[in-house]
Amino acid sequence: MVLSTKEATKTLFYHLETFGCQMNVNDSEYLSGQLEEMGYVMTRDINIADLIILNTCCVRAKVEQKIYSRAGIISKIKKFKPYIIFGICGCMAQKGKEMIKKRVPAVDLIFGPSQITSVQKLLENFKQNKRRKTTILCDNKESFQLASTPIKHQSSITAYLQIMKGCNNFCSYCIVPYVRGPEESRPAEEILLEIESLAQKNFKEIMLLGQNVNSYGYDLNLKTKENFLTLLSKVNNIKNIERIRFITSHPKDFNLDLVKVIEKHPKICEHIHLPLQSGSDTILKKMNRKYNMEQYYNIINNIKEHIPGASISSDIMVGFPGETERDFEETIQALKNIGFDSVYSFIYSNREGTLSPFLGKDVPLETKKKRLWTLLDIQKDIANQKNRYLIGETVEILVESSSKKGIEKQYWGKTRTNKVAVFTYPYQEDLLGRLVNVKIQNADAYTLYGELINGKLK
Ligand code: SF4
What we know:
Layout: H1 5-8, E1 13-18, H2 22-37, E2 41-42, E3 51-56, H3 61-80, E4 85-90, H4 91-95, H5 97-103, E5 109-111, H6 119-128, E6 135-137, E7 158-162, E8 164-165, H7 176-180, E9 184-185, H8 188-200, E10 205-209, H9 228-236, E11 243-247, H10 256-264, E12 271-273, H11 281-286, H12 293-306, E13 311-318, H13 325-338, E14 342-347, H14 365-388, E15 394-405, E16 408-415, E17 420-425, E18 435-443, E19 447-452
Parallel strand pairs: 1-2, 1-3, 3-4, 4-5, 5-6, 7-10, 10-11, 12-13, 13-14, 17-19
Antiparallel strand pairs: 8-9, 15-16, 15-18, 16-17, 18-19
Helix pairs in contact: 9-10, 10-12, 13-14
Bound molecules: iron/sulfur cluster.
The site of iron/sulfur cluster has 10 residues, from helix 7.
C-alpha cells in the first residue's frame, strides 16, 4: 500500500513503543518495515507523530499498567490532534481488545500478534472507513506471513528471526498460549533462505526465536523430518554467519541430543537460557512445567560435561500461589547449586484466564518483595564471582556498539557466552560488527572490562 497523493506531499512520522520480549521486538521490526515501505518515517518524538503504535505485552500486570498509562498520555495528545492514528497491538490487544476499547476510547486500531504483518491493510481499511470506527482484528490462529513482509532490523549485526510462533505448553501462570495461539513452525527452507540473505547483508549473528524453540518442527509435515536439531545444523553451515543463538528453551524438551549438537557445531554459542521458574518440585508441578528438579539437574550436568565454560541463564518467579518459605528456600538452594551466570527474576502476577490463582493461597506482596530482594542479592554475588573468574582470560567479543570516551572510542559487545564486555580502542578504525579478542582486566556482576589484544582482530 502507498500513501495517498495528499499524504505523500508531507512527511508522515510514526512513533512505535515496544513492551515485552524479543518476539515483540522482532514484531516491531516487521511493523517498521511495513510502515517505512508506505513512506512513514520513524520518530522518537511522540509530539510530531502522525501514527502512534504501542506494541504490547501482557505477561505481567505491572507492564499492562504502564501501557495503559502511556495510552492515557497518547489519548490526551490526540484530543488536540485528532488526525493522529493511534494503534494498540500485540499480546495485550489480543487478550483484552474489549477492555482496551472501553478504557482507551481514543484508540483507532486494535490488532493481535498474528496481524502484525497486516498493518498496511489495517491502515488502509481504517482510512477507507473514513476513520469513523475502531478497527479490531485479533485472530491468533492466522498463519505466519513473515517471508513476504518487509522488515527493518534494529541492529545491522544481530538479526532476530522467528522460527515458530505460539505455545502448546500451558504453564498454569502464563497467558501466552491463549494470546499467541498454538505452536506453528515456519518451513525450514524459508528460514534458511532468510538467513542466507541476512548473511549476504553482512549480519554476523542470528538469534532464532520462539516461545519454545526445542519443539520446532513437531507440527510440520512428518515427511520433512525437520526438527530443531536438524535446523541448527543447517544454519551452522551457512557461510558468513559467525554466531547462532536461540531463545527460549523449555527444560522438558532440552535433551542430551541438543547438548551434543551445540557441542559439535562451532557457530552455536555456548550460552543456554533455561527457565527454571522454581526450585521446588511442589511448585513446579503446580506450574505445570512438566519437569522436576532431578531432571533439571540432569540437563545442567549434561551441559557442564559436554560444553565446558558454557554460561547458563534462567528465569525465576517468586511468590507463586501457595509458595511456602520452604519452597522458596529450595529455589535459593538451586540457585547456589547451579550457579547461573544471570537470572531474570520477577514477582508472580495473577493473569486473568490462567489456572494459577486457583492453585494456592496468594502470597502477601511484602513477602513476595522480600523474597525477590533476597534472590537478587544472592544472584548478584554468584554472577560477580562467575564474571571475576574470567579476569586474565582472553575472550572473543562481537562488537555491537560504540561511544566516544575522550579521544578514545569505547566499544561494547558480547562474548560467546552472552556476557557484556566493554573495552576502549584509540584508533580511527571502526570495529563495529567485528570479532575481536579482548583480555579481561576487571569484572562486576553485569559487565566485563578488558583491553583489546593487538593483532588479534579477526
Ligand atoms: S512454555 Fe510456559 S511460560 Fe513459556 S510461553 Fe509457553 S506457557 Fe508460557
